[in-house]
Amino acid sequence: MYLRARTVSEALEDLAAGESRILSGGTDFYPALVDHSLPQIVLDISAVPELAGIEITPSEIRIGAGTKWSAIADASLPPCFHALQEAAGDVGSIQIQNAGTIGGNLCNASPAADGVPPLLILDAEVEIAAAGAKRREPLSLFIRGNRRTSLRPSELMTAIIVPRSIERAPSKFLKLGARRYLVISIVMVAACIAAGENGKVADARVAVGACSAVACRLPALERAIIGKEARAGLGALVQPDHLTELSPINDMRGTADYRLDAALQLIRDAVEACVCGNADG
User: Do the beta carbons of residue 48 and residue 66 sit within 8 Å?
Assistant: First the structure.
C-alpha cells in the first residue's frame, strides 16, 4: 500500500494506524530494497511542506527534516555551519543532493552518514513528533548503532535544532573516500574551533564518522585543545591517544589501522584549517 501525506498531522495519523516505511528523498530507500520486497505500507512524506526549510530564531536554527542537501549547501548560514554545508556538497552527486534530505540521512543511521559529524559539533538535537506530542533528543543519543535509532514506529522526525551558541566560530569538514564523489566515506571529520578575545581556544569540538558504529565527538582531544593558542600549529597537538573513542573496523574500504591513521591526519588538517582561515564553506 502506498500512502502520500500532505501534512505532518496526516503523516502521523497514517503512522499511528499501522507500521509504515517512511519514504522521503528515496536515495537510501530504494538501494536498500535490493534482494528485498517492498514494505507492506510505504508512507511518502516528500510532499509535506512543513518538513522543509531553514528557520533562524534568536536562540536557535531549525532545519526541517525534509530539507534537501542542495538547499543546505546554498543557504546563508553562520560559519559554524560551514562544515555541514561542505558535507552537503559531498553527499553523492548533484542529483542525490537535490533529492536526498538531512532527516533521511540521520534516520538511515549509517556509520558513514556524512551529515552526522557536522551536526554533532553543533550540539544538534532532533525534533520528533507523534500523535499529540513532540519531543527533542540530542543527536548523540538519537543514533544508537548501525542502522538503529530511538525513533518509534509511530514517530516522525520533523526537524534538526541547533542552538545559536558558537555560530561565529569557523568549522571544517573533511572526508576520505576511494574517489571524490559518489563514494561511501572511509573516514570523515568535522571540527569547530572558537577563539576567545585573548587569542586562545575557548571552545573546541571535533567529531569523527565511519570509524565506529556511531559517529562521535572526541572529548579528550577537545579538552587538550582548549586554552591553547588559536594559531598555526594547533593541529600538531592532536595525538593518537586522543582517538580512544574510535573503534574502526576492517572492511573492503580500509583496515582499522588505516582508518585510525587517516582520521589522525584529517583531524589535524581540520583543526589547522579552523585556526588558519581555511575553513570557509
Answer: yes
